[in-house]
Amino acid sequence: MTTEDDGQKWRRVARDLIAALRPLEESLPQQGPPGVAIAEAVHRARRACGLWGLHAPREVGGLGLSWRQCAVVQEEWHRSLLGLWSYQLFSAGEFPPGVGGLGSDVVEACVRGERRVHQLQVPEGSLTFQMGPDGKMMVDGVCPGVPAWKATDLLIVAQGDAGVVCTLGLAGYAVVNRRGTMGSAELVDLVFQGCRVGPDGVLEGIGDALARWQAMQRLQLAAGAVGAAEYCLERALEHLRGRVTFGKPLADRQAMQWLVADSARELHASRLLVHRAALQADAGGDPTHAALVAKVVATDAACAIVDRVIQMYGGYGYCRDLPFEHFWRELRLYRFLEGNNEELAGLATSDVLARLDR
Q1: pLDDT of 200-214, one tens digit each?
Q2: What is the pTM of this model?
């Protein structure tokens, strides 16, 4: 079976899963995380169809899918509002390949869905890491505005090439100031005050592994944004063809055609960037730059496309009877997750200038 055939196979499986789960959309809250009942239903359905442990290596019970296959699955999941809760509903059973130091028991528990592990890379100087003579790492400082789901279980907090594994209840580590947002996410502040992490929780030399993990997460966000934008645009095209005003379908009106043309162009470019980055990673290359660019372009484009879709529907598109305002509110966060887009665009520019100087 070729790579292309296998990618389409997983696309079909993911699309069938979303079709079966779509009735759950009616139970999703307008704001805040989904309930336990929805999460359990999604997890059961994922296990039943085999979409469990996408990234996790096969030797620990995962599927070990390629980056491109995972991107295709994310596109399909995000064709539903359920996909916008990807971290809450679709991260169970996952473990990033190449990240060591957590122990086989933790890895296996994550793949079974009993534990979750996330990572948070902080800028130099935002936290202080100091190794004590007893082999414990002392951490001090504050990380503001962190998505609450990252701090629900295991969290690798890293700065440069070193990091620590934090769990709820760790002395000197507190999750405070939980704040609601205009979407499903909640933000918290992580406070480290004399936090001492024992040798088992200290990870050194993990910079490259975490950078690749973050690149994977950025690419998944980009792929999800593509899928969500495509679904909304397809719904809008049906509306434009069917809605007749003054004797003509809206699709025949040039103002609407401009909106469609801009959206289709941005959607196509975003998908190409996503798949280019995924194929580069699958070939063994460094996907950091390509994934960064794909994330910036795709998430910016998705917000613009869904905004145009709302405009195509007029005032009705702004109503909660249709899903588009909900898609927009959730996708707006994607422009901040794993690095805000303005900062990432600056990094991308620096990479390009560095290459031109060689």
Answers
A1: 899 888 888 888 999
A2: 0.92
H/E element, 228: helix 207-242
Q: How far is CA 197 from the centre of its chain?
A: 28
Query: 1-19 pLDDT, tens per residue?
Result: 344 456 789 999 999 999 9
Q: For 3-97, CATH number?
A: 1.10.540
Structure tokens at 177: 């100031």
pLDDT band at 237 (very low <50, low <70, confident <90, very high): very high
Cα–Cα nearest to 230, from 8, 78, 341 = 78
Rounded distance between C-alpha atoms, residue 153 and residue 155, angstroms: 6
Both structure tokens of 245 = 């005003």
Please report, as a single letter, which amino acid is at residue 34: P
Furthest CA-CA distance within the chain = 81
CATH of region 208-357, choose from 3.30.565.10, 1.20.140.10, 3.40.50.720, 3.40.50.970: 1.20.140.10
User: Which ranges constitute the DSSP H helices of 66-198?
Assistant: 67-77, 86-89, 104-112
- How far from chain centre, in Å, is Cα 342? 17
